[in-house]
Amino acid sequence: MLPQVFKNWVDSQYENPRGPVGKYIGEKMVRQHRIEVEWTIEQLHMHANATVLELGCGAGDALSTILQKREDVNVIGLDRSKTLIASAKKRNAVSIQRRRARLMEGDFHQLAMTDASIDHVFSIHTLYFWEDVTTILSEIERVLKPNGTFIITYCDGKGDVQWDGIAKMIHEEFIPKATNLGFQGVSIRRGPDSRDYRTVAVIGRKSG
User: Fold this and answer.
1) What is the pLDDT of residues 140-169, one digit of tens each?
2) Which end of the chain is more exposed for a tag (fewer CB within 10 A), N or C?
3) 181 near 189, Cβ under 8 Å?
4) Which is more confidently placed, 2 or 34?
């Protein structure tokens, strides 16, 4: 059994990867989250010339996948990990040079984007670490263009076991607060299982 101090350190690395271990974890997550990434991108329904923002872009794999699939969109990636932003910049170097991609280190609670400048916001496996749901949702609402959409992908259980904590947060906090901010069609969408984890997303649209 791992000593608690070491377990806490490992958990902190997943929340904010740092150094060589953080770089390894970033690439490990790229391999592990392939199913969720592909499914989430499909749900975005991006239109031509869209600007897409990923919160918690990690090592930049989802952004790279979007850019490979679509030559008519631009992407922005934000992550709190300096280590993973470096990996993301390396993975998307050509697109950055062509000004189709922009990567930045930062916090979800204060997005460095102008009002109504983003068409789609998505995030994969970051919801567990959101410290202030209301503030982050308010920032998403601020930066989205009218009729812009968000999709926040997460897991709510494994196998037959439901994680009651995350499910309760979605139903009792996330959805009511998103609705209060004026988002339309806020709902839960079931995705494909990944490594026996139950993939889910909460989606919504900013009013026009």
Assistant:
1) 999 999 999 999 999 999 999 999 999 999
2) N
3) no
4) 34
> How many domains is the chain partitioned into structurally?
1
Are 194 and 35 contacting, i.e. CB atoms less than 8 angstroms apart? yes
| Among 208, 140, 197, residue whose Cα is nearest residue 174 | 140
CATH assignment of the domain containing 19? 3.40.50.150
Place of tokens 């239109």: 47
CA distance 50 to 65: 15
Tell me the DSSP string of the chain: ---HHHHHHHHHHHHS--HHHHHHHHHHHHHHTHHHHHHHHHHH-PPTT-EEEEES-TTSHHHHHHHHH-SS-EEEEEES-HHHHHHHHHHTHHHHHTTSEEEEE--TTS--S-TT-EEEEEEES-GGG-S-HHHHHHHHHHHEEEEEEEEEEEEEEETTEE-HHHHHHIIIIIHHHHHHTT-EEEEEEE---BTTEEEEEEEEE---
Pairing of strands 51-55, 74-79: parallel
Q: Give the pLDDT of residue 2.
A: 47
Range of the domain at 24: 4-205
